[in-house]
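User: Could you go from structure to sequence for me? I need the amino acid at each position, not a summary. Structure tokens:
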């Protein structure tokens, strides 16, 4: 307490000057309309800047929530597209009750990702509590990512397309000529498409998409573009290097696709093979 008193005694002249200066400003502003209007304008400008800065900071901390909302909205729109009978739709004009909801879409976040091994996997923050099952397709906004494998209540592992143990059907976007996708474990930027018939009209730059000939992925999900191709030893089929749309070394938001008819399809295929 004594230190506070001593501070006021030592600086009494300065404090008195500041007090009188402040009072003079107040009296000047109150008695002169021009100075009053300028003060109000300056105060509004200052408070507006403070409010704008505060709002920007608040928006920054709300980005995670906004991203979650956007991802959920994207999942809904993707479900509309996957469940439509037409190749291209405008989701705004489709009633959600007017199509067969064969595909259910769940947004997820990648929390771990490997891409330097021969058999790479991802870990996502969705599991049994979110109705996720094994052997469900996983995609991103740019294209195909992998297939779910092991699960617990909150998390699931995903076999990356950069995994030698995963293979699925793909086709040329402009035709129904299809082959089998499988990674050769060399370069994470490319994946290989084999068993593409020699008669298929292919050229560099052509787009490769999913064929829809499985119960995991709907058709026409982007995969990549043809970078190089050559005939196999027997010269009956092409071996194609596909440049992936996805950067598999940098994945964040993904979507899990559940085909509600998968068991019906697989049971019928199994009966045919018996």
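Assistant: Here is the amino acid at each position, in order:
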């Amino acid at each position: 307490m004594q230190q506070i008193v001593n501070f006021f005694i030592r600086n009494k002249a300065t404090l008195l000057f500041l007090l009188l200066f402040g009072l003079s400003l107040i009296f000047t502003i109150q008695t002169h309309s021009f100075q009053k209007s300028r003060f109000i304008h300056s105060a509004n400008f200052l408070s507006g800047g403070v409010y704008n800065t505060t709002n920007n900071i608040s928006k920054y901390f709300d980005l995670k929530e906004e991203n979650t909302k956007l991802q959920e909205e994207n999942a809904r729109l993707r479900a509309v597209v996957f469940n439509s009978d037409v190749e291209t739709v405008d989701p705004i004009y489709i009633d959600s009750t007017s199509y067969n909801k064969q595909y259910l879409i769940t947004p997820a976040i990648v929390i771990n990702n490997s891409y330097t091994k021969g058999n790479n996997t991802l870990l996502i923050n969705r599991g049994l509590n979110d109705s996720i099952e094994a052997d469900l397709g996983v995609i991103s906004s740019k294209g195909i990512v992998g297939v779910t494998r092991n699960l617990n209540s909150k998390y699931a592992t995903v076999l990356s397309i950069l995994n030698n143990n995963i293979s699925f059907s793909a086709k040329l976007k402009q035709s129904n000529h299809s082959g089998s996708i499988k990674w050769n474990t060399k370069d994470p930027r490319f994946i290989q498409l084999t068993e593409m018939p020699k008669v298929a009209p292919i050229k560099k730059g052509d787009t490769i998409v999913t064929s829809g000939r499985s119960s995991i992925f709907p058709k026409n999900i982007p995969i990549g573009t043809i970078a190089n191709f050559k005939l196999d030893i027997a010269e009956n089929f092409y071996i194609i290097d596909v440049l992936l749309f996805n950067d598999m070394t940098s994945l964040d938001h993904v979507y899990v696709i559940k085909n509600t008819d998968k068991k019906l399809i697989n049971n019928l295929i199994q009966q045919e093979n018996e």
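One structural detail worth keeping in mind: The longest strand covers residues 103-113.
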